[in-house]
Write a structure and sequence with these properties.
391 residues, 31% helix, alpha/beta, 13 helices, globular, nine-stranded mixed β-sheet, 27% strand
């Protein structure tokens, strides 16, 4: 995997076609057969690339993934295609026609930008990563819009571009990096680069502290199908604005600076806000739409007496409110013939799997139930219910 060039030859491409979809259990037999007519190193590289393509299908879709070239880090760190496409569309709507994509990785964001009709300079200092980005632009027919350059991003002149996009490395030898100044390059450098362009977007970890967001930036937290994927700092849009965006959609909830919702007793319905809403500190905005309040001042669960449709939270109908007690829960599950137990928690130290094992050691019965381990007015509490359907 240290050199993509052999896989880009006619022999390498033919091997990639032959090993497409190989199951892990069949790799040894396939490798043994192919090594009779091809170099062992090339066969290993092709099988390794096939594994990466299978992993990448979840992010890029099977059709693109089967044509693209990946590195292990590239698969792990690439932006999901749906999120990259949303960001590219925001830039296109701003009138952007050219972007300097700094720290481009294997080119996932550059591909989305090019498909939005935007000309891209894609820069990465790692030779193998840059080679993958170049191969992907070619494989997807976008080489005319994507110029890949192997260089240090801090030395690239971006003055000729309408916008700058920066996706700093947020992983090191010990795993994820949480300090924005420990990103590579640091967030402070990325902000300076952003301020030089008419528009800019900086991809950062969704856990970025709100106090680390520059005053000049709009902060947006993005989730896809309920999973929080990233935060983006936008420049040249609405300084100080905060939004949560949910994909597919997109649906965006804008912050209005509302005070925290009032705490109230648990009503008939419990709403679990989307993770992007919580990360963006917009639970109050979601609660106002629902005419709801909080069950505890420190817990991001909204309660209300009425069932209302909202894209920003999942609704559950609450049937029981009990003090935390495993024996009582076990007896109730047996009495109601519960065979499927979903455990959610917020503000509880109990691990869901541990509770599920103790409360439902032998799942029996046709019914399902959701239990929320949380706090209500400061007290450890179990809220029992089921997903609420709108009629």
């Amino acid at each position: 995997m240290n050199d993509l060039a052999p896989l880009l030859t006619p022999e390498g491409r033919a091997l990639l076609d032959e090993v497409r979809g190989t199951a892990p259990a069949d790799e040894l037999a396939v490798a043994t057969r192919l090594r009779r007519g091809h170099p062992a190193g090339l066969v290993s590289a092709a099988l390794g690339q096939a594994r990466l393509r299978q992993r990448a299908a979840a992010k890029f879709g099977a059709e693109d993934a089967e044509r693209m070239f990946f590195t292990p880090n590239g698969v792990e760190q690439s932006t999901r295609a749906s999120v990259a496409a949303y960001r590219a569309e925001r830039l296109r709507a701003l009138g952007v026609t050219s972007v300097a994509d700094l720290c481009c990785g294997i080119g996932g964001d550059a591909i989305a930008l090019a498909r939005a009709g935007i000309r891209v300079l894609a820069v990465d200092r790692d030779p193998l990563t840059a080679a993958a980005a170049r191969a992907n632009a070619d494989a997807l027919g976008l080489a005319g819009l994507i110029d890949v350059r192997e260089a240090d991003v801090t030395e690239v002149d971006t003055a000729a571009y309408d916008a700058v996009f920066v996706d700093p490395a947020r992983r090191g030898g010990r795993g994820r990096i949480f300090d924005p100044e420990a990103y590579s390059p640091p967030l402070s450098w990325a902000v300076r680069a952003a301020l030089k362009a008419p528009h800019a977007a900086l991809k950062v970890a969704p856990g970025i502290p709100h106090e680390a967001v520059p005053a000049e930036a709009e902060a947006e937290w993005i989730s896809d199908s309920g999973d929080v994927k990233e935060a983006v700092l936008w420049f040249g849009t609405a300084p100080g604005a905060v939004r949560a965006t949910l994909l597919p959609g997109p649906r965006s909830l804008l912050g209005r600076g509302l005070p925290d919702p009032e705490v109230r007793s648990v009503g008939r319905y419990l709403y679990e806000p989307d993770g992007a809403v919580i990360r963006a500190h917009l639970v109050a905005e979601a609660a106002e739409e629902l005419d709801g309040g909080l069950i505890d001042p420190t817990i991001a669960y909204v309660t209300a007496d009425a069932l209302r449709a909202t894209p920003y939270a999942t609704a559950y109908e609450i049937t029981d409110q009990l003090p935390f007690n495993v024996k009582k829960l076990k007896a109730l599950l047996r009495e109601r013939e519960v065979g499927i137990l979903t455990v959610k928690k917020r503000g509880s130290a109990v691990e869901p799997e541990e509770l599920r094992r103790k409360a439902l050691p032998k799942p029996q019965g046709p019914h399902s139930l959701t239990v929320f381990l949380t706090r209500v007015a400061g007290a450890p509490t179990m809220l029992l219910g089921r997903p609420a359907g709108l009629t």
